[in-house]
């Protein structure tokens, strides 16, 4: 499971080293999108959009995907209108699919405490798996919520 995403004061504070004992998701390898020519930048955006649509919803927690999305949001003002649309639409689409999934996962927690003869240690393992999935979905929800808010200032 990825480290928790903590809403930063500013977008660029995600690049700051994590000095505290508390582990959080930060940018490790920001991509210098300003060095890309327009066709390369368009391919980069398409690649990020593809990853966001092709992988699981919480792929945005993966360090490489997180760093690439961050880089695009940071350089949002320099993106072409088409690239902006693709990025925003990818984030919006995943957020809209993620919302009911978080709700559904949260509600399914009660169904784990049933008396059907399963070993109690299996139930605890299932409960932990569910808790991890809910935490991961909530983490992704925070990321998908933060990035659109960050580029609204551009």
Can I get a quick summary?
The protein is mainly α and 154 residues long.
Core attributes:
154 residues
Question: Overview of this structure, please?
Answer:
- Residues 106-125 are annotated as: Disordered.
- This protein has 154 residues and is mostly helical.
- The protein has one domain (11-109, 119-151).
- The chain is built from four helices and no strands.
- It has helices at residues 38-54, 63-74, 81-107, 120-151.
- Helix 3 packs antiparallel against helix 4.
- The longest helix has 32 residues, at 120-151.
- The chain is globular and about 55 Å long.
- Mean pLDDT is 86; it is low at 112-116.
Compile the SSE list and pairings.
Elements: H1 38-54, H2 63-74, H3 81-107, H4 120-151
Helix pairs in contact: 1-2, 1-3, 2-4, 3-4
Biased composition (Basic and acidic residues): 113-125
InterPro entries: CND1/NCAPD3 (IPR026971)
Region (Disordered): 106-125
Strand fraction equals under 5%
CA-based shape: globular
Number of helices: 4
Q: What is the CA-CA span between the terminal residues? A: 32 Å
In terms of per-residue confidence, which ranges show pLDDT below 50 for 5 or more consecutive residues?
112-116
Order of helices and strands: HHHH
- How would you characterize the largest beta sheet? none
Q: How many distinct domains?
A: 1
Radius of gyration: 18 Å
* Structural class by SSE content: mainly alpha
Overall number of strands? 0
- Mean model confidence by pLDDT: 86
- The level of helicity is 55-70%
Region (Disordered): 106-125
GO molecular function: histone binding
InterPro entries: CND1/NCAPD3
Biased composition (Basic and acidic residues): 113-125
